[in-house]
Amino acid sequence: MSEAVMLNWVLFLPVLGIGLLVVAPRSRHDMLRGISFAVMALQFLLTLWLYLQFDADTAGLQFETRLPWIADWGVYYHVGLDGLNLLLVLLTAFLGPLVVAGAFSAIQKDVKLFYAMVFFIQFAMLGTFIAQDLFLFYVFWETMLIPMFLIIGIWGGERRIYATLKFVLYTAFGSILMLAAVIYLVYSLKTQTGISSFAFADLYGTRLPLDAQVLLFGAFALSFAIKVPVVPLHTWLPDAHVEAPTAGSVILAGVLLKMGTYGFIKLGFPLFPDATAVYTPAVMVLAVVSIIYGACLALVQDDIKKIIAYSSISHLGYVMLGLASLDLLGIQGAIIQMVSHGLTAGGLFLMVGMIYERCHSRDLAAYGGLAKLLPVYSVFFMILTLAAVGLPTTSGFTGEFLVLMGAFNAAWPLYEAGITWPLVLACTAVLGVVLGALYMLRLAQQFLFGESRAPHQPLVDLNLREKLILAAIVAAVFALGLFPDSFMHKTELAAREYQQLVAAQPAEAWVMNQPASGKSP
Amino acid sequence: MAHLLTLIVILPLLGFLLNGLLGNRLGKAFVSAVGCGLPLLAFAAAVTAFQSLQAGGAPLLDIAFRWALVGDYAFEITFYFDRLSAVMTLIVTGVGSLIHVYSTGYMKDDASYARYFAYLNLFLFFMLLLVLGRSLLVLFVGWEGVGLASYLLIGFWFEDPEKARAGKKAFITNRIGDAGFLLGMFVIYSTLGTLEMDRINAAFMGPELPAVSASLIGILLFIGATGKSAQIPLHVWLPDAMAGPTPVSALIHAATMVTAGVYLVARLSGVYLHAPEASEVIAVIGVLTAFFAATIAVVQTDIKKVLAYSTISQLGFMFLALGVGAYGVAVFHLYTHAFFKACLFLGAGSVIHAMGGEQDVRKMGGLARKIPWTFGTFAVATAAIAGLPPLAGFFSKDEILWFAYASEAGGSPWLWALASFTALLTAFYMFRLLWLTFFGQPRMDQHTAQHVHESPPSMTGVLVVLAILSAVGGFLSIPHFLEGQLPLPAVDEHLHHLETPLIVTSVVIALAGLAGAAFFFGGDASRAARVRERFPGLHRLLSGKYYVDELYQAVIGRPLVWISDRIFLRLGDRAIIDGTLHGLTGLARFTAGLLGRVQTGSLHLYAWLVLAGIFACLAWSWGHV
Is residue A519 part of a domain? Predict the structure, then answer.
């Protein structure tokens, strides 16, 4: 029981952090930064403890808390950890202190408000991951928008207003549809079974008629796909990244984008298994399109942040492919790929921030030969680049390899049965491996090698704070690359459960149960 | 020693970490000791492992750890040591250690001495993973890892953008091959449910063949091999890779890494034995690569580029052997090639060292007396690659030619004829190189001529060892040693009487190459110049390397950028997607503007509108209620 309390502590620590910031004096920047870092670090340690305590051989939720919130509607404050959110919670808590520490020197304006917003979004993100009640989930999901809107809008670059509006309008548009779908879903549950509940576990059981599922899945999927983002709903991402301050980009790439893929694995696919079966080809096509399209666009960008932004689209395409493959390898790979992308893209954005603080330019052409000027910086940049390329021994390899293998493994029996398109998609996705090397090495090549030049000289190499931040990320990258076994052990049961929920054929064909639905396929 | 094999692999990794993290602080003596010491220890460990293999007979197995467990399949990091990996491990650690020692002399004055040795040790680590891995996954980790080390070392002098670009080209070309490799691995996993190579072979050697086409797997993996081993059509990176320091070219781009593709095919001989179509493709690609690379080598003027094309060509010979089922013979040539090509590259390094960085043979000449040790060893290795008996290259090349002719698994007179003609070219361009470099009148400027000096003993000593190995290495019959594991293909009974004439022919061919080179390039090389003037078009085609780079740039490189920029970015992202969004917001703003005009504040207007609304409601209810 006391262990369950710990999860709530983790969730509400950021709120406590906001409280502390409120009472702290506005002008004492060091103190504000110290408080923020200490709270974040504490949160990470608690999460790490939870992670270690998490029993890999128990299925279902652990550290569960369930308290009535709006009892009449069946709304509960219901949180818990399972294999699907465990690694993402760990990732969020891991990046928290790094984001805070990374912003020590970058943010000089409204420091207090800034860290309060970082806490705010940390709270909302963790809440979204651990919520086990659809109402609670939706509240947290929407809450995330506010701090991000402000972080980009206040501390962003020149075109921050355009970027932040685009981001909010895109996401809000998806959310409205999701809200309608949530209401319809809960209402149907009530008419079917007579209970009103928002609990995921209850909702998984509702087997709606196919046409309703298709509509509802469409609404959920649109909302999640915008967040991922899946091509062609991605154009908010490059703008948001470019204009966001470093911390914003890191949160965005590191955690926020995983909300979309997490939404699919936790809600979108398992809530509507029949619709998923219908949509799988489309999802897989869009996933592969995202992989290739994102990579091609990353190839022709001149802004360093945009390169990484478009590479995110490509990397999250792998996640979608793995999830849609419904092969255990692919699902496990997708989970690892989510974490891996959080680490590599988050780390790269931090590094771009570090160089931006020194030179005030993100224009790739302005740089060259940094390996000579900033040797330590370059070593870290190279490692993260290679991790993004998916070189073996790094986390990127574990994720990409398993996803591609899973997609192929799922496609092969179909190919032997005469259905070729999944195999074609899987093979096309493998091309992403080549394109990934192309755009990332183009970046590294121009940035690190060749004649030494930088817009601002002399340059000072990384200080201790920056080295420690990056060392932590690199250590995590190698841990996931070399020894993924223990991580994957903790997610395996949940991945299987997901697989069963989605792949399960209806016990009796739903058409017979629902003769009133009118439309049979 | 339960974890002897793990130890072999870990030792160079330790060297990488020590030199990479501490090297700059602890000085050159420390770097050299660690950089050379740990590979030598790895070699000693490999010898120990070899002895216990010989004593026990059964392959050694060493399970390091479990990488991942998904469902019922465990991806294990296991090392596997049979005769084939024993040969490879001994070559990699042995020749590798020699080249490390040589590097202490060659790189003595380089500012990034520690970084150099760190990368070199990193390379050895990945290469040992590659040859010792039991599963294709471990092999692939090593495969990509050696690519990384190669990338870092080609671009070692990264301040020169040309060199950094060469590294990138190598990496990306290899990645294309790796995509094929990955697909091959996926097919194997999906159909056989395992990635352990001994099990894959066993599945194909068993009484019942698996349902999957062996040729499909064979071709996909061979695509990977064409990348790593620089075969047509992915050969383009290797000549550019000469931008790296010369010992790197010797170790990575001649003796070890580029032979990984040959090792892969030999390792999976069980699959290829049942893949006649794939084997045919391999033989044809091999012989074509050997031939085309040799023709290019004839006109190259950069000493390292000649050797680079020669390496591509020799790798082609190895693939020819693989394609006709003579796996042991391919490994034999791999083994002799490791000695003489390492000796040639290191000799070239010694020449470049003596010439103060000059690599153009047109500015050399007459070096034989000034750098006698380099010359002597270079000459031995040249004779070895040209196939003069009884040097190492003679034995291995002769066996390749024989099986190319007589193997029942795809041998044919055509393969033999083209390969023999390539052997002639080989002898010709190698002796041409020898002549231009060491004989004739010195063509360098006065200043360089005065500074020509023999290399330090750390370099010449290694050259002598390699020259001796190039001379006598052929007496150790690798095909015989490996026969239990890699049986030689059956030979047509009626052709046995041809064996001796063919050997004589190949000796004559080698001598003809020597004579031809002496004829054209002896004296002031004026005869060669006259030939060049006679056939300017051919000369341009060969010096332009058949314009393959330009072709790829035009067909793949530029269209990719064009599509990404014009279609995807400008049309897709900006015009269509963002255009639609901006259009929608514009529409919303416009409508809001229109409706906003109604808010005039005039009560009269509002009253009229209310009235109109009421009437509209009434009209609607009339029809519906």
Answer: no
